[in-house]
Design goal:
The chain is α/β, with parallel strands linked by helices and about 260 residues long. The chain is about 45% helix and about 15% strand. It has a single domain, classed as NAD(P)-binding Rossmann-like Domain (Rossmann fold, 3-Layer(aba) Sandwich). Helix 2 links the parallel strand 1 (about 15-20) and strand 2. It binds NADP nicotinamide-adenine-dinucleotide phosphate.
Length: about 260
């Protein structure tokens, strides 16, 4: 085998099963499509079946394999039920991408409510934590290792005004990544994070569709002078879950057009 084909084998996910949360649109959809195009069978998760089946159809139409399972990743009963279904149907999980997140409150911390706090923390931290716990138990039982990537945000390093609670959860995602990385390394399970900057999705549309906010504040803060497209985020995820990153755990890769530089 020549050097090039040996490298390409590292990003060949044939025979691997990958679980992606928030896979019905945006960054999660781009990650799911990339993983499927490289051979992984993808379990697509979000709350609404309709969005998931649309992504599932795109994958199967191009010869890939995917299954849609609706789940509110901020709800423990639904997470437990998701993993009962996964354990009933799949022999193993090789890859987990925690991506579903919420940001229900845009405003000053002094005006934030307890219900917004509870929702933000349930989806962005509790969900990531217990989905990781479930998936890592399966990986550990099978003894074949695995790879987990958490989608954080540059806000986890540098909080953005009006997004306090969201930023605090994203700082927690970085600590969670490092904590699980240390605990799971002996079982050959790697845990890393990707921290996107502003990306063109429904999630960010409240800011990116506001021309004044976009042109006066957002674009001038980005050295590359533009926001990302979702498939510019998925490359870093593919690297981290692949064997090309076999010595990388507990790392955070920023994909932000230079915002944090
Ligand atoms: N866009 C950005 O500028 C940006 C920047 C930095 C980081 N990020 C991070 O990137 C990740 C993906 O964001 P995105 O921009 O792709 O957002 P998006 O386009 O709004 O997609 C969010 C996805 O999460 C799902 N979701 C939302 N709440 C959920 C819940 N409670 N349970 C299960 N699924 C849920 C949504 O599907 P359903 O509605 O069907 O549940 C959807 O599939 C998030 O972690 C976000 O914090 C985004």
């Amino acid at each position: 085998m020549d050097k090039n084909s040996a490298f390409l084998k590292q990003i060949d996910f044939t025979g691997k099963t990958a679980l992606v949360t928030g896979a019905s649109r945006g960054i999660g959809e781009a990650i799911a499509l990339s993983l499927a195009s490289l051979g992984a069978e993808v379990i697509l998760v979000s709350r609404k079946l309709e969005g998931l089946t649309a992504v599932e159809k795109k994958i199967t139409a191009s010869g890939g394999k995917a299954t849609s399972i609706p789940c509110n990743t901020g709800n423990m009963n639904e997470i437990d039920n998701l993993f009962s279904q996964i354990r009933g149907k799949y022999e193993k999980i090789d890859i987990l991408v925690n991506n579903s997140a919420t940001n229900p409150f845009f405003g000053n911390n002094l005006d934030a409510t307890e219900s917004a706090w509870d929702k933000t923390f349930s989806v962005n931290l509790k969900g990531y934590f217990f989905i990781t716990q479930h998936a890592a138990k399966i990986m550990k039982e099978k003894g074949m290792g695995g790879s987990i990537v958490n989608i954080g945000s540059v806000n986890g390093i540098r909080p953005t005004p009006m997004q306090g609670m969201y930023s605090i959860t994203k700082a927690g995602v970085i600590s969670m990544t490092q904590s699980f990385a240390k605990e799971l390394a002996p079982f050959k399970i790697r845990v890393n994070a990707v921290l996107p900057g502003m990306t063109d999705t429904k999630f960010s549309s409240v800011m990116t569709q506001n021309p004044e906010l976009l042109n006066k504040f957002i674009l001038p803060s980005i050295p590359m002078g533009r926001i990302a497209q979702p498939d510019e985020i998925s490359g870093a995820v593919i690297y981290l879950v692949s064997d090309a990153a076999s010595y990388t755990t507990g790392s955070c890769i920023t994909v932000d057009g230079g915002i944090l530089a």
